[in-house]
Amino acid sequence: MPTWFITGCSTGLGRALAEAVLDRGDNAAISARDVDSIQDLADAHPASTLALSLDVTNQAQVTAAVRAAEERFGSIDVLVNNAGYGYRAAVEEGADGDVQQLFATNFFGPVSLIKAVLPRMRARRSGTIVNLSSIGARISPPGSGYYAAAKAALEGMTASLKKEVEPLGIAVMAVEPGGFRTDFAGRSLTQSAEPITDYAETAGKRRKEVDTAHGTQPGDPRKAALALIEAVDSPALPGILLLGDDAVDGFRDALTALLAETEKWEELSRSTTIGSGS
User: Fold this and answer.
1) In degrees to the nearest 10, what's the CA dihedral of 65, 66, 68, 73?
2) Which of 10, 31, 112, 133 does the annotation list as catalytic?
3) Which residue ranges make up each domain of the chain?
4) One of 134, 151, 192, 199 is an active-site residue; which one?
5) Catalytic residue check, 163
6) Fold (topology level) of 3-248
7) 188 is known as an active-site residue
8) How far apart are CA 240 and CA 237, in angstroms?
9) What residue spans of 84-220 are helical by DSSP H?
10) Is the Cα dihedral 49, 51, 56, 58 positive or negative?
11) Tell me: the pLDDT tens digits for 3-45?
12) Are 5 and 76 in contact (CB under 8 A)?
């Protein structure tokens, strides 16, 4: 049976995935900053679960957690970088410390885990790496510039990683969920401390105190978990897996708009090539 290593399992998609993986009989190293929040999962599946306390921004904890999982189960077959959180602020409002912490968790944390599991995956010439991004990386809503940037960085790295390790037998996939009924837009969402009035009609409309979307998102975390497992089990892992109607529609609209703009400015773009034009 395969062994999964899943981060951010206390709530939301991470917890739903951990439950689905364990219910079907796979091994799982599951992690959260507060290990008590996932102890019930370990108690329900004691033979196949390792519950770990892990802050993905702490390199020592990352190293220790991966080592513990490999010692317990022999290998990590599927790494799922799910831990992360949202941050809303107009670009001008974003506090430097908040933005650095956002990137430390949503980008550099996954990088640390990838680098920790790759040596053994390369040695075995097998393994799967799944990085949870967001449709926000594609549609870049106002007020989510820094979050979209962190997830876009994760996707850019994921795409290059895929080309580097697929010849070594390792599969890589980015996942772009739309809105799901989790704590992501509630308890887990942070925002700038000092809003600027000039952004009230753009970024301001998505501040927690005025955004009514939380609790009405269309996505079902349980269905997302099953879809993710199905993709991982498939012989040909997609480079990007979209989850939800809003993700598919947003992705298609963004690509259509980008193509239209590319065509509009194509002549000027091509004019910079040596030998073109007069």
Assistant:
1) 140
2) 133
3) 3-248
4) 151
5) no
6) Rossmann fold (3.40.50)
7) no
8) 9
9) 96-103, 109-124, 136-139, 145-165
10) negative
11) 999 999 999 999 999 999 999 999 999 999 999 999 999 999 9
12) yes
pLDDT, tens only, 161-212: 999 999 999 999 999 999 886 666 556 789 998 999 999 999 999 887 776 5
Q: Extract the tokens encoding 137.
A: 């990386």
Q: Which secondary structure element, helix H or strand E, spans residue 228, and what is its range?
A: helix 221-233
- Judged on CB neighbours under 10 Å (0-12, 13-18, 19+), 203 is buried
202 phi/psi in degrees, rounded to 5: -120, -90
How confident is the model at residue 278, as a pLDDT? 57
Identify whether 133 is a catalytic site residue: yes
Q: How wide is the angle at C-alpha 174 spanned by C-alphas 254 and 22, nearest 5°?
A: 135
Q: Are 206 and 136 in contact (CB under 8 A)?
A: no
CB 176 within 8 A of CB 134: yes
Tell me which of 144, 147, 162, 192 is the catalytic residue. 147
Q: What pTM value is reported for the model?
A: 0.93
